[in-house]
């Protein structure tokens, strides 16, 4: 059968998680749901993720007619189904009959039955039961015309320290290092007398045991990812063996760092994620930017449209405060996903549960059960907007700019002791760089060290503490061939086993950078320094900026110095440098700078490198992205300010296909323009 890696539907998807199994004894509710769905232009539901105990009430005794009936009924009404596999939450009987499926925590305590997402990914007993039910679902429903996508499990995550997982971990290490001597060498186990004689002695990290052997921590995290990917592969294989060849996804959790999502690339046909920003905690534009970076990360995984799999139509019930979204935010947030390359805006949940943990979580249809609710009306508005934007479906987002934000680097960087144990600003630096790029209105890919760099024009590289996957060679070649890089402090410190490089650092890049690091100063929370511009610097930077947290001291060999420290014993040493290498340029930012610095730096670099921007001026709080098909090009403009703002729309060449183009862009409104041919 030919492999179909895309959803064969012409619409942007609108709908979300639906739990009809909770309402099987109330057919009138299910009937009413359908009416609600149709009125709100819902065209897809996601079912099955938490249905296992209804689908298989006893070991080997299946009951799936109810699900087939729902899929049929929806399909007859033009609503498609994303079919979830139920491995995210197991029935009681399964835990009782096969206790090994229960997860063991880092303290080596086996969990009792309960909650969800807490099974062992290694247990063959678990795998077998998952395989059986996945195969059955694939056989009974996989080729139903109403099923458009298979959804593996739910938010894979966490780790298991049971004996089965320990054994697998040792196998994985053996595969990686071949001999115990090599493992000792790479992990530097002579430190604190930790030399292993045999792989059998290696244990996963534990608060009761070893937590400070960085290479062990790093490899454990890698193993947990590998084992989870292997489990996902296993689930997928069962679906294929059940005769279903439809595309496959699993829902990721945005900035969750328990797994390296990149490693799922081979398993997935479509990337998807669950977005739950804490709206109204910070200024909306900041929340919007942080969410946008997650969208871009998801799109960059497979470099094609992704799906927003879940979002709350109202508040959540698990954040500190269940904040309502102010009017207009639901539509703005849904369209923001589309603006960043999603082909869907889906919710958790379609109907609010009556009892248990999520009974107070927002839903399209709440306990009141009528359509005259603010939330339902706003959902209808989103449905209408998505229908008007149908032609965006499947269009791509080309980007010449990338931000390198690497999960394994994050693990290692955050695990190290020093140079600041009260906060290493990795995410924060990435966020600042990302915001600065987005202020220019350009699309940004969020990539990692394993990605190909050569197709980009500019790459921003915050705090790349660990060098792996030949990144130093790739950066060298990229700059040599004419690319521009902006790299920051605390880069090129350790290798892929988290051992420090000997010799000059950033390792193997000092000639490209035209400098080497000599020291790094950790600043107390209340301390700061200032970066001052050098006269006639090549970017014409002329403002002062604050530096906090970390100030690196470098010794320049070739680079031009653009800014220097204003005080402390390193007064006069460089804060910003630029080196020409081959046909390209590489900038090095020595300190943790305030956001305004990155905004001005990137604006100046864009000007110098003549990067094309969709607008010459974008007011703060306005977000601009583009999506393209072979024939057409679209500009999506959103205002995340609480007030309307004036914006100079292009006077010609564009027609408005969504929203209203006037002198001012309303608060939380969206306008979509299409290039006229
Ligand atoms: C996650 C889960 C859902 C639900 C929502 C609630 O994203 O995947 O099952 O629990 O959170 O916000
Ligand atoms: Zn286990």
TrEMBL record:
What residues make up the catalytic site? Answer: 155 (proton donor), 310 (nucleophile)
Occurrences of domain Glycoside hydrolase family 42 N-terminal (ranges)? 17-388
> Pfam families, per this entry?
Glyco_hydro_42, Glyco_hydro_42C, Glyco_hydro_42M
Q: What are the UniProt keywords, alphabetically?
A: Glycosidase, Hydrolase, Metal-binding, Zinc
Output the Gene Ontology cellular-component terms.
beta-galactosidase complex
Recorded catalytic reaction(s): these are: Hydrolysis of terminal non-reducing beta-D-galactose residues in beta-D-galactosides
Q: Does the keyword Hydrolase apply?
A: yes
GO molecular function annotation:
beta-galactosidase activity; metal ion binding
Q: Name one GO biological process term.
A: galactose metabolic process
User: Binding of Zn(2+): at which residues?
Assistant: 120, 160, 162, 165
The entry marks the following residues as binding substrate, namely: 116, 154, 318
Protein family: Belongs to the glycosyl hydrolase 42 family.
Record's protein name: Beta-galactosidase
Source species, please? Candidatus Galacturonatibacter soehngenii
The lineage is: Bacteria, Bacillati, Bacillota, Clostridia, Lachnospirales
């Amino acid at each position: 059968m030919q492999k179909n890696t895309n959803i064969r539907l012409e619409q942007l998807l609108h709908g979300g998680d639906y739990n009809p199994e909770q309402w099987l004894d109330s057919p009138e509710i299910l009937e009413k749901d359908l009416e609600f769905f149709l009125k709100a232009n819902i065209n897809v539901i996601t079912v099955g993720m938490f249905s296992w105990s209804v689908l298989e009430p006893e070991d080997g005794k299946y009951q799936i007619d109810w699900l087939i009936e729902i899929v049929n009924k929806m399909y007859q009404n033009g609503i498609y189904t994303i079919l979830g596999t139920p491995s995210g939450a197991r029935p009681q009987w399964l835990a009782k009959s096969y206790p090994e499926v229960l997860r063991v925590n880092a303290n080596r305590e086996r969990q009792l039955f309960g909650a969800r997402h807490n099974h062992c990914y290694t247990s063959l007993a678990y795998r077998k039961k998952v395989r059986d039910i996945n195969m059955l679902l694939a056989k009974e429903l996989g080729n139903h015309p109403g099923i458009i996508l298979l959804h593996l499990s739910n938010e894979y995550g966490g780790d298991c320290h049971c004996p089965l997982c320990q054994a697998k971990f040792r196998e994985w290490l053996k595969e990686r290092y071949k001999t115990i001597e090599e493992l000792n060498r790479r992990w530097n186990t002579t430190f604190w007398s930790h030399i292993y004689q045999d792989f059998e002695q290696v244990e996963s990290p534990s608060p009761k045991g070893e937590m400070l052997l960085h290479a062990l921590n790093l490899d454990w995290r890698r193993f947990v990812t590998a084992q989870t990917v292997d489990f996902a592969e296993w689930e997928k294989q069962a679906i294929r063996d059940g005769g279903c060849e439809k595309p496959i996804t699993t829902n990721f959790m945005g900035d969750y760092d328990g797994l390296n999502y990149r490693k799922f690339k081979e398993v997935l046909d479509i990337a998807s994620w669950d977005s739950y920003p804490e709206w109204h905690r910070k200024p909306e534009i900041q929340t919007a930017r942080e969410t946008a970076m997650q969208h871009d990360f998801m799109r960059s995984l497979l470099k094609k449209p992704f799906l927003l799999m879940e979002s709350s139509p109202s508040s959540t019930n698990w954040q500190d405060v269940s904040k309502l979204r102010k009017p207009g935010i639901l539509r703005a947030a849904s369209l923001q996903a589309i603006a960043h390359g999603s082909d869907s805006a889906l919710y958790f949940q379609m109907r609010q549960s009556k009892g248990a943990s999520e009974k107070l979580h927002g839903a399209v249809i709440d306990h009141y059960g009528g359509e005259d609710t603010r939330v339902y009306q706003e959902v209808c508005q989103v449905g209408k907007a998505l229908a008007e934007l149908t032609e965006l479906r499947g269009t791509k987002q080309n980007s010449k700019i990338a931000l390198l934000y690497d999960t394994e680097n994050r693990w290692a960087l955050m695990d190290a002791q020093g140079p600041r144990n009260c906060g290493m600003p990795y995410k924060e630096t990435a966020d600042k760089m990302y915001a600065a790029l987005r202020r220019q209105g350009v699309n940004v890919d969020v990539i990692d060290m394993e990605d190909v760099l050569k197709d980009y024009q500019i790459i921003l590289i915050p705090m790349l503490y660990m060098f792996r996957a030949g990144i130093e060679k790739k950066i060298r070649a990229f700059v040599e061939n004419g690319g521009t890089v902006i790299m920051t402090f605390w880069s090129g410190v350790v290798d892929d086993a988290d051992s420090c490089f000997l010799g000059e650092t950033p390792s193997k890049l000092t000639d490209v950078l035209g400098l080497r690091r000599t020291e790094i100063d950790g600043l107390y929370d209340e301390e700061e320094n200032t970066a001052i511009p050098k006269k006639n610097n090549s970017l014409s930077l002329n403002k002062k900026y604050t530096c906090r947290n970390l100030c690196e001291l470098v010794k320049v060999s070739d680079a031009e110095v653009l800014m220097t420290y204003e005080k402390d014993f390193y007064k006069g040493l460089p804060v910003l440098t630029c080196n020409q290498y081959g046909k390209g340029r590489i900038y090095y930012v020595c300190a943790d700078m305030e956001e305004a610095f990155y905004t001005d730096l990137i604006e100046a670099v864009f000007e110098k490198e003549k990067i094309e921007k969709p607008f010459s001026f974008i007011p703060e709080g306005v977000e601009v992205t583009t999506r393209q098909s072979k024939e057409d090009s679209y500009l999506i403009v959103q205002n995340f300010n609480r007030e309307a703002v004036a914006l100079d729309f292009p006077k010609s060449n564009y027609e408005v296909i969504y929203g209203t183009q006037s002198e001012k862009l309303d608060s939380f409104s969206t306008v979509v323009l299409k290039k006229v041919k």
